[in-house]
């Protein structure tokens, strides 16, 4: 909204009065007044006012917040541990379910770079898990040249 911080505080009080007959109230601990350029987190999204690259126009962008990314990585780490005894097919099916659900939830966010990084993260987690399960066989050393003396 446009106006001063006092205008924002007055609007907050008005919203509280509207919610009260419905049996709802604003939580003082969770409700903050911030400038849109500082942004705020809401339901796993980071909503922020930023200038569009290469222009002078400002837009409200929706990004993925840091906390859901950390949570997803923790799930992937738990599933793809190097000493995991789960069948590879089971791991891949579960990974697909988790990643597809997560991507569908965040599909409207500006997140191409996040999805690219997560793709690489999952790929290398799987590679490390498979390398541990199937260590590379050492090639036999080349036979010594018997004719040289």
Please describe the structure with a list of short key phrases separated by commas or semicolons.
single chain; mainly alpha; three-stranded antiparallel sheet; 4 helices
Description of the molecule:
With 149 residues, the protein is mainly alpha-helical. Helices cover 46% and strands 11% of the residues. The protein contains four helices and three strands. The protein has helices spanning 5-19, 66-79, 88-105, 112-133; strands at 40-42, 45-51, 58-64. Strands 1-2-3 form a three-stranded antiparallel beta sheet. Helix 2 (66-79) packs parallel to helix 4 (112-133). The longest helix has 22 residues, at 112-133. The protein is elongated, with a radius of gyration of 26 Å.
What spatial order of strands do you see in the largest sheet?
A: 1-2-3
Structural class comes to: mainly alpha
The proportion of residues forming helix, as a percent range, comes to 40-55%
Mean pLDDT: 87
* Annotation, overall tally of beta strands: 3
> What is the radius of gyration?
26 Å
Topology as a string of helices (H) and strands (E): HEEEHHH
The CA-CA distance between the termini, in Å, is 90 Å
Figure out the total of helices.
4
Strand content: 5-15%
Low-confidence stretches: none
* Biggest sheet overview: 3 strands, antiparallel
Q: What overall geometry do the principal axes of the alpha carbons give?
A: elongated
């Amino acid at each position: 909204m446009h106006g001063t911080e006092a205008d924002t505080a007055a609007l907050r009080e008005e919203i509280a009065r509207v919610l009260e007959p419905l049996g709802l109230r604003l939580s003082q601990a969770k409700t903050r007044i911030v400038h849109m350029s500082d942004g705020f987190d809401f339901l796993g999204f980071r909503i922020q006012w930023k200038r569009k690259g290469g222009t002078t126009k400002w837009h409200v962008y929706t990004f993925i917040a840091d906390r859901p990314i950390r949570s997803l990585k923790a799930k992937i780490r738990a599933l793809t541990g190097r000493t995991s005894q789960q069948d590879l097919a089971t791991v891949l099916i579960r990974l697909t379910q988790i990643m597809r659900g997560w991507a569908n939830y965040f599909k409207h966010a500006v997140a191409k770079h996040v999805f690219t990084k997560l793709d690489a993260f999952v790929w290398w987690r799987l590679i490390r898990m498979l390398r541990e399960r199937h260590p590379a066989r050492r090639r036999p050393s080349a036979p010594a040249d018997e004719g040289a003396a």
